[in-house]
Write a structure and sequence with these properties.
The chain has helices at 41-48, 71-77, 93-97, 99-103, 108-121, 138-150, 168-185, 196-202, 221-226, 231-236; strands at 2-10, 16-25, 30-35, 56-61, 64-65, 79-82, 156-160, 188-193, 205-210, 214-219, 247-251, 254-258, 264-267. The strands form 3 sheets. A 6-stranded mixed β-sheet has the order 6-7-8-3-9-10, sandwiched between helices. The chain has a 4-stranded antiparallel β-sheet with strand order 2-1-4-5, with helices on one face. The chain has a 3-stranded antiparallel β-sheet with strand order 11-12-13, with no helix packed on it. It has 275 residues and is of the alpha/beta class. It binds adenosine-5'-triphosphate (ATP). Adenosine-5'-triphosphate (ATP) is lined by residues 11, 13, 15, 17, 35, 37-43, 194. Its EC number is 7.6.2.9.
């Protein structure tokens, strides 16, 4: 479990990025921070691996105050995936993935074997191992970024808008791959996005944030959709419009669900999905 306790981050120029923030992030599940630009999502994420140190408060991982840990070792033990993949342009795909294992003292051979395994895990053909990042598509680069984040087999994977820069179709593919991976690997994932649909798709726990990392609501997607904390959250999650504003329409063959534009989204059936 990751805990934020009374966390604040004030920058020297007077910006109060985070003020008295408290949150528990359960292990083996995914938590998504969602909110508009500049609300403090990245700052919160980077406090988990000490890329940013808080001005006040304590971050704990499994009960241990991380300020007492060696920052470099901590950072290497936690996976980090960023927007635009952050790959080293003059390193091959395999060498990019193997960076952290190499830094941690693994042999070249073992690191490469691990890199090839991980390419397979994230759905990349191993024939691409010796290509350079510019020889890959944006979506493939992001997969390499995810493989690199997983290279040290971390318990925690931090993902900062990892799919923000790819087109919607590739983005949907990458989101589904991440859901598959999460079932397989069972990591603690902390994911940042400004896209509420992505947050609801990927998050077991969703944290809706406003400026200054103010928590507007924390809950599962169902809890938030069924019971938005206030009008601002209702409007932010699009409860009154788009694909989430569904109503029942009676047809000759039984009730169907239609969205705010009148498009049929599905059939209303009795009982659970397995019946
Ligand atoms: N080094 C810094 N010095 C001063 N202010 C900073 C610094 N880093 C971030 N900030 C400010 O802190 C606030 C939170 O920034 P942060 O990057 O965490 O937001 P974000 O929600 O991740 O935004 P985005 O979605 O645009 O990436 C912003 O007002 C930002 O300008």
């Amino acid at each position: 479990m990751i805990e934020f306790e009374n966390i604040s981050k004030h920058y020297p120029d007077g910006t109060k990025a985070v003020s008295d923030f408290n949150l528990q992030i359960p292990a083996h599940s995914s938590t998504v921070f969602v909110g508009s630009s500049g609300c403090g999502k990245t700052t919160l994420l980077r406090m988990i691996n000490r890329m940013v140190d808080p001005s006040a408060g304590t971050v704990r991982i499994d009960g241990e105050d991380i300020s007492t840990k060696n920052a470099v070792e901590l950072r290497r033990s936690i996976g980090y995936v960023m927007q635009n993949s952050g790959l080293l342009p003059h390193f091959s795909v395999a060498d990019n993935i193997a960076t952290v294992p190499r830094l941690m003292g693994e042999s070249r051979k073992t690191s490469r074997r691990r890199a090839l395994e991980l390419m397979d895990t994230v759905g990349l053909s191993v024939t691409m191992a010796d290509r350079y990042p510019h020889q890959l598509s944006g979506g493939q680069q992001q997969r390499v970024g995810v493989a690199r984040g997983l290279a040290s087999d971390p318990n925690i994977l931090l993902m900062d808008e990892p799919f923000g820069a790819v087109d919607p179709i590739v983005r949907a593919e990458l989101q589904n791959e991440l859901l598959r991976l999460q079932k397989e690997l069972d990591k603690t994932i902390v994911f940042v996005t400004h896209d509420i649909d992505e947050a609801f798709l990927l998050g077991d726990q969703v944290v809706i944030l406003a400026a200054g990392a103010q928590k507007l609501q924390v809950g599962s997607p169902s809890e938030i959709i069924e019971n938005p904390a206030n009008d601002f959250v209702a409007s932010f999650i699009g409860a009154q419009r788009g694909s989430r504003a569904l109503r029942v329409k009676q047809t000759a063959h039984g009730p169907v669900l239609v969205d705010a534009q009148g498009r049929t989204q599905g059939r209303l059936v009795e009982g659970g999905l397995n019946q």
